[in-house]
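Need residues for this backbone.
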């Protein structure tokens, strides 16, 4: 197994042992604190990256100006991966991780929430002096000790989905007026912080099961309990809608996965169709061109080469990455830092194959960079 990374590297976020403006083609990592064959997921932020392994250990690399690596370090950058000490999570394995611009979080197997990084907008759920930046994982108790299920970060907000399908939002996320009629949104406080509580109006008909945040918006994947077997064709949305990124839809097929960039979205459906909508000034919707008005308020289908089936979609700030079931990687969109991996800095308007040795089993994306783990060894 080999690890490859490309794109922006100004904070050492590619884990290559050095900082540089960019890497326009996939570069093989020679040193890392994790075993590539044991990686469960890769999550990227503004200039940092977290890797979660199958033992529940978290490995961090890149920008650390706000402590977002969770290493209890004051160094500005770490250009090689280091494991966050398990004692920081009270020796409990981590089940899921997430990155925002300069913030990170994880949820343990016991459903306990930990956050670290910037708290400039109280997005850690803490309202106390001396907590502008938190440099090691900090446990956050939710109201009534509710277990956390998922976490998602925007530029200035943190959203936590609980096991009973409520969402708590810390920090700043402006909700449209009026809000979606399917949701009840109330203001509350948590640890003296202003907190937004979101739940469905009728829990017997609808249930929130997943969430994904953009810069200033958020998509919610819902189960329609009125349908036999529970349909997941409906998504709801909150936040800024300047480019149509907060438009909500009832699709014809169930949603397998949501992926959200700064101001654009992707929905991977059960029939393997990928629908894209939102901002399209850099080709980030992968439709073959940019949009004159920048905004695409209605979903458009992402076209892949014949015979390719999508396995997973990842969104950077303004670019996209797709891994196919055959283990190939396609990228498109904003390419200023070589984040599309095609040996160029020109924007890419359609999904384009990235040359990576071997079959890719796992991938991830940050703001302006990408990662892939290949099953083939490179000499």
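Answer:
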């Amino acid at each position: 197994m080999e690890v490859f990374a490309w794109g922006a590297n100004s904070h050492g976020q590619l884990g290559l042992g050095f900082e540089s403006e960019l890497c326009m083609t996939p570069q093989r990592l020679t040193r890392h604190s994790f075993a590539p064959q044991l990686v469960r997921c890769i999550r990227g932020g503004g200039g940092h990256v977290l890797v979660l392994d199958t033992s529940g250990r978290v490995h961090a690399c890149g920008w650390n100006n706000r402590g977002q690596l969770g290493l209890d370090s004051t160094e500005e950058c770490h250009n090689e991966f280091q494991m966050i000490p398990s004692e920081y999570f009270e020796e409990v394995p981590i089940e899921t991780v997430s990155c925002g611009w300069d913030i990170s979080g994880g949820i343990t197997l016991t459903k306990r929430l930990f956050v670290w990084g910037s708290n400039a907008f109280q997005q850690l759920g803490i309202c106390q002096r001396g907590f502008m930046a938190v440099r090691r994982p900090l446990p956050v108790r939710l109201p009534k000790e509710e277990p956390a299920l998922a976490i998602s970060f925007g530029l200035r907000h943190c959203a936590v989905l609980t096991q009973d399908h409520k969402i708590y939002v810390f920090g700043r996320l402006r909700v449209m007026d009026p809000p979606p009629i399917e949701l009840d949104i109330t203001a509350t406080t948590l640890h003296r912080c202003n907190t937004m509580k979101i739940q469905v109006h009728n829990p017997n008909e609808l249930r929130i099961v997943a969430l994904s945040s953009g810069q200033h918006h958020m998509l919610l994947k819902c189960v329609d309990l009125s349908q036999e077997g529970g349909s997941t064709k409906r998504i709801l949305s909150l936040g800024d809608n300047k480019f149509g990124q907060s438009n909500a839809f009832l699709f014809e097929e169930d949603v397998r996965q949501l992926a959200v960039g700064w101001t654009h979205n992707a929905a991977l459906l059960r029939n393997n169709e990928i629908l894209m909508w939102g901002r399209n000034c850099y080709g980030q919707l992968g439709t073959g061109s940019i949009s004159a008005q920048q905004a695409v308020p209605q979903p458009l289908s992402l076209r892949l080469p014949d015979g390719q089936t999508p396995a997973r979609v990842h969104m950077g700030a303004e670019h996209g990455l797709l891994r196919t079931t055959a283990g190939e990687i396609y990228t498109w969109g904003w390419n200023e830092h070589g984040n599309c991996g095609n040996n160029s800095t020109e924007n890419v308007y359609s999904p384009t194959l990235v040359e990576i040795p071997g079959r890719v089993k796992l991938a991830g994306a940050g703001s302006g960079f990408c990662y892939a783990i290949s099953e083939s060894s490179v000499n």
